[in-house]
Structure formats: structure tokens, C-alpha cells
Amino acid sequence: GVLLYNHLQQKVRNAEALAQKYKQQQEALSAQLQVVYEHRSRLERSLQKERGEHKKTKEDFLVYKLEAQEALNKEKQDSMNRYGALSSQHKILKNQHDDVKKQLLDLQLQHNSLKLEHRKSLETHSQKLAQLQQEKDSEVTNLQDTVFKLREESKLLRKAHQEVHSQLLSAQAQMEEFRQLKEALQKMPGLR
User: Fold this and answer.
1) DSSP class per residue in the chain
2) d(CA 152, CA 94)
3) Would you say residue 146 has pLDDT above 90?
4) pLDDT band, residue 143 (cuts 50/70/90)
5) Contact assessment for residue 169 and residue 104, using Cβ atoms and an 8 Å cutoff
6) What is the model's pLDDT at position 46?
7) TM segments (predicted)?
8) Is the pLDDT of residue 35 over 90?
9) Residue among 111, 91, 89, 90 nearest 171 (CA)
10) Within a 13 Å sphere around the CA of 167, how many CA atoms are in the beta-carbon half?
11) Is the pLDDT of residue 181 over 60?
12) Contact status, residue 100 vs residue 178, Cβ threshold 8 Å
């Protein structure tokens, strides 16, 4: 009985030692599991934070993309408006240039016509004067009146000739100004 009792006590002690060992292993595993849980919790919080930041970054990017697209569209519309205005202005200036060119041609024709008329008038008056001097030496008073009238008419013709010449110079200056303005417009990159 004593031997059996001792043998049972030995088994109990062995069992207690084994239980103590398993308990320590369980506590170590519980501590490790706690560490794993805490690490997993930190990772989940970090992942959640990253997702939030990613979502915010994505929203910010979409807002930026929309604003950039709107700015680009506005700039494109402004450029089209500026091009349309410049194109209209170019057409107006071209029409004005054509009108001035036509006026210049008309004034040149008028100038040449007046010049020819003036020359013919001077020749006619000279011939009449010579004829009157030869035929009517006795009518000096009447001849002087005729010469005075002819001189007045010649002055008027010279004055008209001078006015037409001034108009011609003014038209040429205006045409040169339009030509320079046209060249400046053609050099602008938007009109190319």
C-alpha cells in the first residue's frame, strides 16, 4: 500500500509538473497571441488610415482635374474669341485698304484728266492770246480784260490742280499706313 501510495504520489507530482509546464506554455502562447492581435489591430488602423488618405487624395485629384479642364476650356474659348475678333478686324482693314486703293486710282485718273485739261486750256488760251494780239491790236483794252480773265481761270485751274495733288499725297500716305498695319497684322501668330 505504501509503495502504491508513493507510486501514485510520484505520478501526481509528475502530472502537476507536466500541468505546470503546459500552463507556462499556454501563458507564453497567450502573450504571443496578444502581441499578434495588437499588431493586427495596428495594421488594420494603419490600413484604414491609408484608405482614408487614398480616398481624399483621389477626391483632390478629381477636383484638380475638373478645375484644370475648366481652365483649359476657358482659355481655349478666350483664344477662339480673340482669333475671331482679330479675323473680323483684319477683314475690315482689308476692305478699307481696297476702298483707299480705289479712291487713289480715281484721284490719279482725275489728276491726270485735270492736268491734261489744264495743258489744253493753257495751249488754247495761248493761241487765242496770240490770235487776238495779231488781229486786234486796236482793241488793247478789251484784250487786257480777256487776258485778266484768262489768268484768273488759270489760277483757278492751278488751285484745283494743287488741291487734287494734295489729296493724292494724302491718299498715298493713308495707303502706306494701311499697308504697314496690314503687314503688322500678318506678322501676328494668331492670324497665320
Assistant:
1) -HHHHHHHHHHHHHHHHHHHHHHHHHHHHHHHHHHHHHHHHHHHHHHHHHHHHHHHHHHHHHHHHHHHHHHHHHHHHHHHHHHHHHHHHHHHHHHHHHHHHHHHHHHHHHHHHHHHHHHHHHHHHHHHHHHHHHH-TT-HHHHHHHHHHHHHHHHHHHHHHHHHHHHHHHHHHHHHHHHHHHHHHHHSGGG-
2) 43
3) no
4) low
5) no
6) 96
7) none
8) yes
9) 111
10) 16
11) yes
12) yes
Tell me the pTM: 0.34
Q: Give dist(CA 174, CA 171) in Å, integer.
A: 5
Question: How much is the mean pLDDT over the chain?
Answer: 92
C-alpha grid cell, residue 57: 487624395
Residue 190 has a pLDDT of 66
Side chain identity at residue 119, one-letter code: R
CA distance 114 to 166: 14
- The cell numbers describing 9, all together, are 504520489
